[in-house]
Design brief:
The protein is α+β, with helices and mostly antiparallel strands. Among the domains are: 44 residues; 141 residues, no CATH class. The protein contains 13 helices and nine strands. The strands form three sheets. It has a five-stranded antiparallel β-sheet with strand order 1-2-3-4-5. Helix 2 runs antiparallel to helix 4, helix 7 packs across helix 12 and helix 8 packs antiparallel against helix 9. The protein is flat.
Amino acid sequence: MTADDRYLTVRDGRGASLVLERDDDGSLSAWIAPPGGNDGPSVFLDKETRAQVAAFLTEGKSEETQAEVIAARRKHIQDTARCVGCGGTLTDCKANRGKDPNAPAWFGCCARGTALGPCRHEVDAGALLALLGEIEAGEVRSVEQVTEEDRRSRAARTGMSWFDYLNQDKVWQPKGKPPVAIADMDPEWRYNAARWLESGCVKIGHRYSFDARAWLLVQLSSPLGPSENAADAIEGDIDRETAEIKHDPVAWIRTTALYRALVAGLPTKPKKLTALAERARHWSTCPARNGDANCRCEQIRAANDERETAQPADADGVA
């Protein structure tokens, strides 16, 4: 490929060329020249066509479109910020303000229990971190993609909320697969599952807090629900746990029933724990986890080494 201020030329192995020419007025033309030639039928590229080509070459996302996707994700995170009092979204809260003639103008989704003040919404810190990571990687998911993936994740947990899931110690829910009894999981699998919980503890903690408050609201709406004093005590426990999650989410996730069940019986001495971690890392990429009855990793590595050894050298003696 060659380029200067006026021409961009791309050649293939047979000698054919794709040429882009920029005229003095800034307009662009393109043509394909056959092998050995410099000219061919040309096509004028107007501003709209250039934008379409740019979007196509960047897999459908031009710089402007990418910025719009990021802005939409940021707005979605703000709109879905959960109320610390009732768990409602900021969008729902704003929609309800001013509808009750007997309530203050600021009243939206709730009055923060007995605090009788404007509700406070907190954005999902895990969602913000995920967005920042995608921006750094150059691949930002759309709001629709994120919403669908969240829906599938919730469905995969067979209807359990994060509050229910983390407070049980019987089953593990692999992504997109049926639940598995923790008692049937080998140590390497349980080790990897526990590490996965730790890596996502910020986002999981936020969802857990929301689900806990939603659970309390369901209990309070039941005729057989807790008394006022008991409800206040439960709400206080939820508030304290939420504070623990914000202060040290890793330490908090390690106290949950699910995490403790996963790590129960795993080695704690450094030498044995290091060996388990090494086996767990191998297992996370081993073909056997996809249904192959036997691990063939050593055989695959040996075959690759044999092929590299047998590869003929080129004219310079470089294999």
